[in-house]
Hints:
By secondary structure, the chain is mainly β. The chain folds into two domains: 40 residues, no CATH class; 82 residues, Immunoglobulin-like, CATH 2.60.40.1930. Helix content is 0%, strand content 65%. It contains no helices and eleven strands. A four-stranded antiparallel sheet has the order 1-2-3-4, with no helix packed on it. It has a four-stranded antiparallel sheet with strand order 8-7-10-11, with no helix packed on it. The N terminus is likely disordered.
Amino acid sequence: MKRGKMFSGKAFAMKLAIPVIAGFVLQVQDLRGQSVGEIIKTEGLGAASLVNLYPNPTSDLLNIDFKSNVTTLATISIYDGVGQLINKQDLQPNTTTTLSLSGLPKGVYFYRVENAEVVNKSGKIVLR
């Protein structure tokens, strides 16, 4: 197993390790070197795709560019700070979709873009 660069923190250390087909595994270890968990991140399982959201932060409209070499739909799901689904929208490949976030309170929201049950991208949206 090839080990990557080590990042240290107060209570734990993390090592990037074990490359997978199209992503990575992040192993989390305590300061004694004992494994306390891992995070697996995969990207499209061989299907090249690119998702870009802008502007972020936004005050209303959010543009989502979805570029993909496959013709299947993707879905963007937007969640509030407690994980409740706020909006869900299909994304056509190789297009830009515009979502209106008007009517939502200002704050931080989370998004997840999936294609065939694979998470292509996730992150946060700031609404101001």
